[in-house]
Amino acid sequence: MSGGTLVFTGLSALFFMGLVAWFSYAKTRGEVDSKDGYFLAGRGLGATFIAGSLLLTNLSAEQLIGLNGSAYGYNLSSMAWEVTAAVATIVMALIFLPRYLAGAFTTLPEFLDNRFDADVRRLSVLLFMAGYGLVTIPSVLYSGSVAVMQLFDVPGLTGLAYFPALVLTVIAIGVSGALYAIFGGLRAVAVSDTVNGIGLLFIGILVPVLGLIALGGGSFTGGLSTIVTQDPQKLNAIGGADDPTPFGTIFTGMLFANLFYWCTNQYVIQRTLGAKSLAEGQKGVLLSGFFKVLVPFMMMIPGVIAFHLYGPGLGSIDQAYPQLIRDVLPVYLTGLFLAVLLGAVFSSFNSLLNSAATMFTLDIYAPARKTMPDDASLIRTAKIVSIIIALFSFAAAPMLYFAEEGLWQVIRVFTGFYNIPMVVIVIMGLFTGHIPAIGAKIVIIFHVIAYGLLRFVFDEAMDLHFLHQYAILFVIEVAIMLAAGRIAPRASLYVRPDNARVDMRQWRFAYPTAFTLFSCVAGLYLLFSDIGLAAGQGFQPLFLTLVSALGALNLAIWIWSALRPRAI
């Protein structure tokens, strides 16, 4: 990248990021002075901001680089992590969200206190804070910084060695992202995420279009013909045992991992807890599910295009997307791309920061005080905690450089320490009334010990995919809680509180929309299979039959929904 191009890219990126910052400030001015305003956006988030924030919170640089790299090196099997998440958004919208909003909970640990006791609340905060602070936040900063350095050759441009350039990039990204979370609260995070999300969708669609045109020698249809007729196995999403994501894992541990992420993970669900009504929350969550089914086209097809353009000769599969960007994206859009890339990193970082500060302030600091602190004190504490966590992450993130080959393994291992027990405890807490707090405590302690043994002691002896291990632990821990409920049930059945502060009328089209979203997931797997594009011989009769049946079912359900009387 020449000096002139660098200056243009930098200035245009600053311009776009400045627009996002100004818009976020204008939308949040005067609205973050109260507890609900700072932590839950005043319980006033609409569907657009919820969907936009969920999209950007979930997608970051590691998906752009990693998913395209997986498609380049293998096939589309890893789309399961993104596409099947749409099913979890359906569960969140229809089952979990109505119960969360009915209780007017600010945090998930607050619900666990209400359902079980204060000790379960503290244990859950401990698990979340350890996971966020030690692994998730530093890894988001690190992977985002590595992506920026790969795409824009920061060491070469600055004249610094790799590690000092990494530290500089981490701090620059971290400081910029932290400003939203520290000073603007959840609403600033949601607003900035939504604007950046529009940019991500634009770039995400543009890159594969430009890539196909380049592959087809100037013809979009020519490029499309190439990827569906040459090496069509690259378009297969039905992963085998040797693929990055075996198909069978979708129905075991991945199911529970997605339920945790979309239904019980504080930094994801916090924007849904700020919905201005149940209907708006359901619209936002389901819309984010539709964005997830677009991910294979935006973040994996470019990897397939890179395979056809460059062959298998790139030094690393993670170079596929950066190389494609350098070759097909016009210079005048590089600044926008950098702004979008940084926006995606900011989103995950500032969402994690905001949620960590929220949990510490509302679930540790406030309950420990003899009298409830006023809103100003809570907000001030949250800002101080955010700064401390941010500074810690600036120091921790570059250290991941020294374990670079094991980065994804580190993330995978430490997420497993808290995702399964959280989803077990929340599910059992929501749908049973007799299970006592001791059941939740035993599950947390059991899981940490059992999972630690599986990953660090018996790892080499266990010839079982880690997602299948998730499923086994889930079943065991559900059994533990049911046994606790039978041996020592609560003195009185738990009754969910009805403290709703927003309109709790369900969105009229929630169920037909959910069915259409589920149909899109099924349709994608049919499309990217041996009866679809992966056959390399056009669509098979079975594919056309199944897709037609899905279409007819959707049409019937939508007609029924439109004609049935509205509930008053």
Structure description:
By secondary structure, the chain is mainly alpha-helical. The chain has 24 helices and no strands. The longest helix is centred in the N-terminal third of the chain and has 54 residues, at 162-215.
What descriptors fit this protein?
single chain, 568 residues, mainly alpha, 24 helices, 0% strand
What composes the largest sheet?
A: none
Rounded to an integer in angstroms, the radius of gyration calculated over CA atoms is: 24 Å
Mean pLDDT equals 85
How many helices in DSSP terms?
24
**What's the number of extended β-strand segments?**
0
Distance between the termini: 62 Å
Q: Spans of 5+ residues with little confidence (pLDDT < 50)?
A: none
Report the principal-axis shape: globular
Please bin the fraction of helical residues: over 70%
Beta-sheet strand percentage? under 5%
Helix- and strand-based class? mainly alpha
Helix and strand pattern: HHHHHHHHHHHHHHHHHHHHHHHH
